[in-house]
Design goal:
The strands form six sheets. The chain has a six-stranded antiparallel sheet. Helix 18 crosses helix 19 and helix 19 packs parallel to helix 20. The chain is built from 20 helices and 20 strands. By secondary structure, the chain is of the alpha+beta class.
């Protein structure tokens, strides 16, 4: 007989159809409870061992906490000793959360959010340009690489100080009048008080020259400032530099001067412009602009720096504003608008345009089909994506299917229009995020050309290969080393339990009972719990022999961590 330190000791179990059963289940071993149907296997494993473990956990909580929990009845048993913290893994999918996915259920998505926030390359959501903040060292290296003898003028823009905020008009008419008055004042007097104060501050700071359209104006001669057009961009001349890297000492001195100029321009204007001064006065002047702000390097639009919550579709900060992070909206369902994809447009593929009242829309499309490149006699499923987009979203004078519904929306005060529209409504893919659930700024952050939505759209097997072969810079590798280790480990566990065919963005509510059970097993392996009691309910039902071997291997790994496994 084993002691309570070596085994779970059960004496006199009479739950349901158990007949005064006594047994010992050794700690740190894989124990199988077998028998014919109705012999009391589940009654022993779940309704006695697991239920008593749960009851003792609840009883250990404070009286205040227990009042919010359902009372658990004590199993009909004389004695249970040596019980470890119990975890039940049943072959049943109880997840009904419409936001939960395979990636979130296994904690992979939490690590991916952190990975993309720390190591992702940010692109502009408007022009796809690279979004970055130019460091002083990078600027110095870029300028030194322009070539020896390159003459440069270092500039930063003059921006007026923010004036004290005046009370804003509350009425629409008041706001319009204020805007009109402000615009008139700006035209009549570009030299505002704020601009005067800024120029005075710059002069007090030791800056003596202004620059505009190739001309330099001295602060020391105020009459020259009258020639400056303050409705156009005006710059402060910080320094004039000639790139010199002929000798080590000269190169170091030259670099130090560039760094000083950049730091001054960043401090005063937030950006720096190096304008090349060619020896031929008629030659075009090349400008090299660098910014301290986190902005697009092409269109200069400011962007937000990525952080983990930006990649969460459960957080308003990162969720698509149109669908609130669900990926679909109650909108017009294309499967109802075009129910038979085998029909051509001439055969009436677009259902609402088959009605006599709206036949004019079809006639209009037919007239413009040749110029728009729409094949009228080709089945909808055989049409190119470009042609489908024109039919749906329109082009030129043709408003398309969505334009038709937009016009009908404006007439829905009529009963028959509301009835017609209701026939084509359903859950449709969000037109803004295309089902990816995140806002545009989050989808513009990529690692190895994939954003986080595209990465989670991969199957477990392909995601495992992608993250195993990920190429990162040494700095990124240092930041993401432990994060990638956790992601790869969890993907390996999912692959080991035979779920390599699931995509990471698969909704957890659509999984079968066996898939949900194996995901729980993979999550348990990833959590690295030690000294726990796992109770599994017939985990091998419906599995192929190959998958059964994988499952046994996973259970042995759980056991080897120092856990007790009880399998029904």
């Amino acid at each position: 007989m084993l002691s309570a330190n070596e085994a779970i000791v059960i004496r006199g179990a009479r739950t349901h159809n158990l007949k005064n059963i006594s047994c010992d289940i050794p700690h740190g071993k894989l124990t199988v409870v077998s028998g014919v149907s109705g012999s009391g296997k589940s009654s022993l494993a779940f309704d006695t061992i697991y239920a008593e473990g749960q009851r003792r956990y609840v009883e250990s909580l404070s009286a205040y906490a227990r009042q919010f929990l359902e009372r658990i009845e004590k199993p009909d048993v004389d004695e249970i000793d040596g019980l470890a913290p119990a975890i039940a893994i049943k072959q049943k999918n109880t997840t009904r959360n419409p936001r939960s996915t395979v990636a979130t259920a296994t904690e992979i998505y939490d690590y991916l959010r952190l990975l993309y926030a720390r190591c992702g390359v940010v692109h502009c959501s408007h022009c796809d340009g690279l979004v970055r903040r130019d460091s002083v060292d990078e600027i110095a290296a870029a300028i030194m690489a322009l070539g020896e003898g390159t003459r440069l003028q270092v500039l930063f823009p003059v921006r007026a100080l923010h004036q004290a905020e005046e009370p804003k008009p509350t009425t629409k008419r008041g706001r319009a009048a204020a805007a009109k008055a402000g615009a008139k004042a700006a035209v009549e007097s570009p030299m505002t008080d704020a601009l005067k104060a800024r120029l005075t501050e710059l002069r007090g700071g030791g800056f003596n020259r202004l620059y505009q359209q190739g001309r330099i104006f001295e602060f020391s001669s105020p009459e020259s400032l009258l020639e400056i057009d303050f409705t156009m961009p005006v710059f402060v001349l910080v320094d004039r530099i000639v790139v010199d890297g002929s000798a080590a000492s000269a190169g170091a001195e030259n670099r130090a001067r560039i760094v000083d100029a950049v730091e001054i321009a960043y401090r005063e204007g937030g950006e720096v412009i190096f304008e090349e001064v060619p020896r031929d006065e008629n030659a075009e002047r090349t400008k090299h602009r660098f910014s301290a702000a986190f902005e697009c390097s092409v269109c200069h639009r400011p962007a937000r720096e990525p952080e983990p919550r930006l990649f969460s579709f459960n957080n308003p900060f990162g969720a698509c504003p149109r669908c609130q992070g669900f990926g679909n909206t109650v909108d017009f369902d294309l499967n109802l608008v075009i129910p038979d994809k085998g029909l051509s447009l001439n055969d009436g593929a677009i259902d609402p345009w088959n009605r006599p009242k709206y036949r004019g829309w079809f006639t209009d499309m037919k007239k413009q089909a040749a110029s728009l490149g729409i094949p009228m006699d080709k089945a909808w499923r055989e049409m190119t994506d470009e042609a489908r987009e024109i039919v749906l979203r329109g082009k030129g004078n043709f408003e398309g299917v969505y334009g038709f519904f937009a016009q009908m929306e404006r007439k829905k005060y009529k009963l028959h229009v509301r009835v017609m529209l209701s026939k084509y409504r359903g859950y449709a893919e969000c037109p803004e995020c295309r089902g990816q659930r995140l806002r545009a700024e989050a989808r513009a952050v990529r690692i190895n050309a994939l954003n986080i939505c595209q990465a989670t759209a991969l199957t477990v097997g392909r995601a495992k290969d992608f993250f195993s072969n990920l190429t990162l810079t040494p700095m990124q590798e240092e930041i993401a080393g432990q994060i990638l280790h956790e992601v790869r480990q969890r993907l390996t566990f999912l692959d080991a339990v035979g779920l390599e065919y699931l995509t990471l963005d698969r909704l957890a509510s659509t999984l079968s009972g066996g898939e949900a059970q194996r995901i729980q097993l993979a999550t348990s392996l990833g959590s690295q719990l030690v000294g726990a009691l796992y109770v599994l309910d017939e985990p091998s039902i419906g599995l192929h022999t190959r998958d059964t071997e994988r499952l046994i291997h996973i259970l042995k790994d759980l056991r080897d961590l120092g856990n007790t496994i009880v399998v029904v």
